Amino acid sequence: MSAIAVLLLAPACQKKNTNPEVMARVNGHEITRTEVQKYYDNQTAGSADKPTGEQANSLRLSILRQLIDNQILMQRADKLGLLATDEEVDRKLTEAKAPYTAEQFDAKLKQMGITVDELKRDQRRSITVDKLINKEVTSKIDITDKDIANYYNEHRAEFNLIEPQYHLARILVTPQPNPQMHFKNDKAQNEPEARKKIQMVLNRLDSGEDFATLAMNYSEDPETSGNGGDLGFTPESSLKSTDPATREAVSKLKPGQYSGIIAIVNPANHQLFGFQIVKLIAREPAGQRELSDPRVQQAIRTQLRDRREQLLKAAYYDVLRDRAKVENFYAEQILQEAGTKLQ
Q: The whole model's pTM is what?
């Protein structure tokens, strides 16, 4: 798991920052400009046009917010003795290498703009956050048989599958401005920005970050971003009628896997609509599913658990942020350069 909602700017810091290399401080821990730049380079890897000016500042500010949140979580995990072990990190690295030859894996890292050590750093954080959330959030969730039966009785029609179904989720980025909608992170305003943004999301997925969290923070689909990009079940006939690139990508996925970047093109005028990354959560064959079917019980249990987990995680992150002492010097610098200073 790993991803988190946008952090509100901290109150004006009480201690002046005298080191320009330090961009923020979290409970005394310094986050440096070098560290932010490493992630900046990683997230812009593969982009033909690099962000400049305010776009670059906005991306660095977003990265810094994420690093602040990460540090808050890592400090909490350290306090509880939940930091990932070297053995756990090595195991995850081995899993990441498995689909590739050594040469292919090196090429993948080069494409992402990171080293093996930097990948292991991200994996260590990802494992640690998963352990922390499991202990403090997930393990506290109890979905009862009554909860499952109530849901089934209220949504029985959902389990009458007249054809095979594909349970999908997606992260969508579009090049069209939409001032009427609020996006948590960097709404792409044109095609180059959209390409940069979707590549950044794919880079973070490949680094082990959670698909649902990235969808909540970056997807520009207003119907699904709030629930982790979940599209629900799509009938096989609907999948066949979708655009060929998406259909082909989904057909190659196994449950739990996600696609590469898919360009969505309007077949009528061949204009680019946007880019998406699709995840196959599950496949379901046709037929009526009864409550006694273990697959039905598991599907309902998973759905109810996921909903409750998203709510509790959001509340958990907010509480940790409220308790932390955060000094965001870079945010203050941006405000000061614009002539704004909070008292």
A: 0.59
